[in-house]
Structures are given as C-alpha cells and as structure tokens.
C-alpha cells in the first residue's frame, strides 16, 4: 500500500491505495464545491455530529469515488463511524477526490481510476478486512464477495445498503435463493432516490458523458435508448430536448406503451440497429446489444452504456467480428468490422456518465446519499428486528428528505386542513 510521509491528521498512519496523494488539494476543492450543492446531507451531517448515532460502527463501502460520495463518507464519519471506501467500478474514480479523502479527512480509500480487475477485487477485500458491521454497496459486489469468499465476516455484519438498480436486482435474486445472509436496505427504491437520481441524474449525466467523450451534436441524430425504466425515461427526455429523434427498445409491455405515449418510436433492437446514430443501454441486463446487432449498424455509429455493469454491450462478440480496434480519442475505441464499417464504443462499455464525465450533479446525489445516511442509522437501531431480506427505505425518510430538499430550495407547499384530513380518512362522504 502507498504510504505518505506527512502526519497531517495522521493520514500517514492509515492504509490506503490512491493514484497520487499530491492530487489532494484539487480534490478538496471538488468536495467543498459539491458540499455547497448538498444542503440536505449537510444538515444530516451536523445532526450526526451532535448525536453520534453510528459510534463504534465499521462501514465498508463500495461506491463510485466522487466528490458527492466523499460528502457521504464525511457525514458517516461525523456520526461516529469508521468508514473505508473502495470503488464500485474500475473507471469511475476521481483520483483527486480519493487523495483528498485520505489526506484531509483521514478516511482510508482504495481506488485508482483505470485499475484492472485484479486490483478492483483486491481493493474490495481491503475494505472488508476491517471486519465491518455494515456494508454499503453500489452494484452488490461487496455482498457477493462476502457470501462467496469471505463468509467468516458474516458473524460481525448486522446489515447493508444498496445504491443502484442493478445491485437491488442481484440482491433480490440472492434472497429468492435463500442466500442473502443479512438484511439489506434497497436505497435505490426510495422515491427520493430513483425518481430523481435515476431520471434527472442519469438523464443529464449520461448525455454529458457522451458529449464530453465525442463532442458530437445530438440535434438531428437518431438516438436509441435501450430500456425505458427510470434511467431510460430520463435519458430519452433529455435527448429529445436536445433535438434528437429518439427510439426506445423494451421487453416490458407496460414500459413500451408508456414510451409510445410519451412520443417515442418503439421497436426491437434488431430494427433500431439499422437506424440509430447513437446507442445507449440502460437496462441492467446482459448483452442488450449483441453480435447480431453490430453488423446492421451504420458506419460511424456510437455505442455506449449507461447501466452499472459493462455487460450490457457484448464486446466479446464485437471483437470477434472486428478486423481491428484502435483508440481514436479519450474514452473512444473504434472497432473496424469485417464489412469495413467502423463502430465507436465509449468508455470500454462502462457507465459513460462517470467514465467520461463527473456523474450525477451534486444536488441530485444530495437526496440519494441522504437516504444512505438515514438507512445506515436505521440499520443500527433496528437490525435485530429485520429478516435476511431486501428491505424498502421507510416512507417517513422519503418524506423527511423531500421536505428538507424543498426547504433548501425555498419552496413552500400547502398543508391539509383538519376538514380535508377527515375527508381523506373517511368513507361516509359521497356526492
């Protein structure tokens, strides 16, 4: 592990693995900038600092190492927790933020942007080595590692949280197989998380990543959104707003109807493959764009992924039918097919909003990470009463977070009168 010579906040005495500790000053500016846009989490941090609800608890977190995540880690530490952080994706770490967390906040971080698969899992094991009471996941790799390879840790773990749709899907599969060995709260399923984070955050940040990687004009382009869940809805909405013609592919009948009613063309991927200029996968599933689709695409088509894992695009199949692969621009690899068409894959098929850009705006992550903080506190108080299953975030947290967010935006709303409450709670009233 890297070691620093400075004794600032005793960070030289902790284990960590970051790209360059000298990047810390730049990272500090990012963290403080994000904090200004995260007023709800800031209020929670101040409350945690007074009450210390997480005192003595060890938290192993596997999240995207960004300025927003840094503010969550700082809030948890303010609550009395010992927080260790690793990356939930090899290409999404902001190296300067990782350095600042170590140097300025004495929080051990194990994350380097561009780390290989071996290092990725080495870092996961490094944060698990503290024998945590709580795991905090974005994709469920921590839970999976514990269940498959580190079962000795289960005696100490009281619960966990999960940040993203893909992770919740994996966790529900574990629960169905009776493999989930401790309770996990699906933070992703809170309304103040997926309704805003997935729709507005993913919608904007995915387009931000595509534009930063390619500098392409979206107006007039045919954009294919694979999936019309909350992430797909947000992305399609934003692409349409920038002048793109949007096609949606789906496997869910209800979502397909919704996409059609929202004004988008809906068709199978095989048909869309011939029409699209830009393809974005937002499904959380495997090989959504596969070997049969690539030869049908236009010369110069752009393919990228907005989902958590890099298996939504079948890159192995693409490589098999390609004559050559070359990097033509940062985060852009050009595959030349045997039919001489060239296809551009962005960010090695990993989630483009964090690979080529900065991920969701801090004001959106404010609500997502407020849910994380409340959920961890809830676990500490209630874990003995929770089954080894996937649990929803209590509704009262959603309402409290929404209220705090509205206050921070100086927005006021009406309050029900006593008469209105009586009407809503009765059945006797009629026409």
From TrEMBL:
Family designation: Belongs to the adenosylhomocysteinase family.
Family matches, as NCBIfam families: ahcY (TIGR00936), PRK05476.2-3 (NF004005)
Its job: May play a key role in the regulation of the intracellular concentration of adenosylhomocysteine.
Residues the entry annotates as binding NAD(+): 164-166, 198, 227-234, 250, 285, 353, 360
The organism of origin for this protein: Endomicrobium trichonymphae
First-listed, main subcellular location of the protein, grouped into a coarse class: cytoplasm
Pfam families with a match to the protein in the record: AdoHcyase, AdoHcyase_NAD
Regions annotated as coiled coil: none
Metabolic or biological pathway, per its Swiss-Prot or TrEMBL entry: Amino-acid biosynthesis; L-homocysteine biosynthesis; L-homocysteine from S-adenosyl-L-homocysteine: step 1/1
EC number(s) recorded for this UniProt protein: 3.13.2.1
Positions bound to substrate: 66, 138, 163, 193, 197
Gene Ontology molecular function: adenosylhomocysteinase activity
Gene: ahcY
Cofactor details (free text): Binds 1 NAD(+) per subunit.
GO cellular component: cytosol
Required cofactor(s): NAD(+)
GO terms under biological process: L-homocysteine biosynthetic process; one-carbon metabolic process; S-adenosylmethionine cycle
Name of the protein this chain belongs to: Adenosylhomocysteinase
């Amino acid at each position: 592990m890297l070691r620093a010579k400075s004794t600032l906040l005793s960070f030289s005495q902790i284990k960590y693995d970051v790209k360059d500790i000298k990047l810390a000053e730049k990272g500090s500016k990012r963290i403080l900038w994000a904090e200004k846009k995260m007023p709800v989490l800031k209020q929670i941090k101040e409350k945690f600092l007074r009450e210390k609800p997480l005192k003595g608890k060890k938290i192993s977190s596997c999240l995207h190492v960004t300025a927003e995540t840094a503010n969550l880690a700082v809030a948890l530490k303010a609550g009395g927790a010992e927080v260790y952080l690793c990356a939930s994706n090899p290409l999404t770490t902001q190296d300067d933020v990782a350095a600042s967390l170590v140097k300025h906040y004495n929080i051990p971080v194990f994350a380097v942007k561009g780390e290989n698969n071996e290092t990725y899992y080495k870092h996961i094991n490094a944060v698990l080595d503290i024998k945590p009471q709580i795991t905090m996941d974005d994709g469920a790799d921590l839970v999976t590692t514990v269940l498959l390879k580190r079962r000795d840790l289960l005696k100490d773990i009281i619960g966990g949280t999960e940040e993203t749709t893909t992770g919740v899907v994996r966790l529900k599969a574990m629960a169905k197989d009776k493999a989930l060995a401790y309770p996990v709260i699906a933070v992703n399923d809170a309304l103040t998380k997926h309704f805003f984070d997935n729709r507005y955050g993913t919608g904007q940040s995915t387009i931000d990543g595509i534009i930063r990687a390619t500098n392409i004009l979206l107006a007039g382009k045919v954009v294919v959104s694979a999936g019309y869940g909350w992430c797909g809805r947000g992305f399609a909405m934003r692409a349409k707003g920038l002048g793109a013609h949007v096609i949606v592919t789906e496997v869910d009948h209800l979502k397909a109807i919704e996409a059609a009613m929202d004004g988008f063309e809906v068709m199978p991927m095989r048909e869309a493959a011939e029409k699209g200029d830009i393809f974005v996968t937002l499904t959380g599933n495997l090989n959504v764009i596969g070997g049969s689709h690539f030869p049908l695409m236009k010369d110069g088509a752009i393919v990228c992924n907005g989902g958590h894992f890099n298996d939504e695009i079948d890159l192995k199949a693409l490589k098999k039918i390609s004559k050559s692969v070359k990097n033509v621009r940062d985060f852009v690899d050009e595959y030349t097919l045997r039919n001489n068409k060239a296809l551009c894959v962005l960010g090695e098929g990993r989630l483009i909003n964090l690979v080529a850009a900065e991920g969701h705006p801090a004001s959106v992550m404010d609500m997502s990470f407020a849910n994380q903080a409340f959920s961890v506190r809830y676990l500490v108080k209630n874990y003995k009463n929770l089954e080894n299953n996937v649990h929803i975030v209590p509704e009262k947290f959603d309402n409290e977070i929404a209220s705090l967010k509205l206050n921070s935006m100086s927005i006021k709303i009406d309050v029900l009168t006593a008469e209105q409450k009586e009407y809503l709670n009765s059945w006797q009233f009629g026409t």
